[in-house]
Each structure stands twice: as C-alpha cells, then as structure tokens.
Design goal:
elongated, alpha+beta
Length: about 150
C-alpha cells in the first residue's frame, strides 16, 4: 500500500514541475506586458507633447553626439537642405491598421539631403504606394522630427 502511494506522489512530481514552470512563464509575460504598456503610454505622451511644440533649428552637427533618444527623439526641428541627385531608398511597409494615411502596402521614401554646412542627412519624404517617387531637387525649408 505504501509503495502505491509513493508511486502516485512520484508520478505527480513531473506534471507539478511543468505546471510551476508554465505558471512562472505566464506571470513573467504578464509583468512584461504591463511594463511595455507603461512604456508605450509614456512614449505616446512624449510624442503628443512634442508634436505640437514649436519647431527649433536643427542642432549643429557638433552637438549631435550629445543628443539622446529619450530626450530628443520626435523633437520638432526646422532646417534648410538641398536634395542631392542620388538614389532614393524605399522601405517597404505592409500598411497600418492604426494610421489612416497608410492603409495599403507601400514604401517610405528616404532621400539624401545636404545641409548648408555640407553635412548629408537622410530625409524621410513620406509614404508612397509605388517605389517610383520622383526625386526632389533644389533647396527646401523643412519642418520635421528627429529620429534615431
């Protein structure tokens, strides 16, 4: 009789360990989701504040190493640049259920532009449904957001 009880207990040890591991994993995932939710809410708040802020002049290139993602990403900046006759880059997107302006598959168009000091930066020109956006030429005044 005793050996039957021992065998019954031993046969439950494996499933108990598996259940405890699964429970630990599920609790960890739940905690991670709550942390992620808090991070996203903070990011949305920062983006909302910075989207309506007055645009500042693009910081001088000597200061770029001091810019931080947490302190400067999505900051509105204004600048004058000249688009360079060079190949544009097209980054494919499958569309977005969250953005009304990007419902269908398409491409973000990136183009090189030269600042008055000669430095070259990448400009996200926006979204196009076809990978054949006409290159921009000439000097333009832009207002946009810093991205890392």
């Amino acid at each position: 009789m005793r050996s039957a009880k021992r065998r019954a207990r031993r046969s439950l040890i494996g499933p108990a360990i598996v259940a405890a591991c699964a429970f630990t994993v599920l609790i960890s995932l739940g905690v991670w989701q709550l942390q992620r939710k808090a991070w996203k809410e903070q990011l949305i708040e920062i983006m909302s504040q910075r989207a309506v802020a007055r645009a500042i002049d693009l910081p001088k290139s000597e200061l770029w190493d001091g810019l931080t993602q947490s302190g400067d990403e999505f900051r509105r900046v204004k600048l004058r640049a000249e688009f360079i006759d060079a190949r544009q880059a097209f980054a494919y997107t499958a569309g977005s259920a969250l953005r009304d302006d990007i419902k269908a598959p398409g491409y973000f168009v990136f183009a090189p532009a030269k600042l008055p000091n000669g430095q070259v930066i990448a400009i996200n020109r926006g979204y196009s449904t076809q990978p054949d956006a006409k290159p921009m030429r000439g000097s333009v005044e832009l207002v946009g957001y810093l991205r890392f």
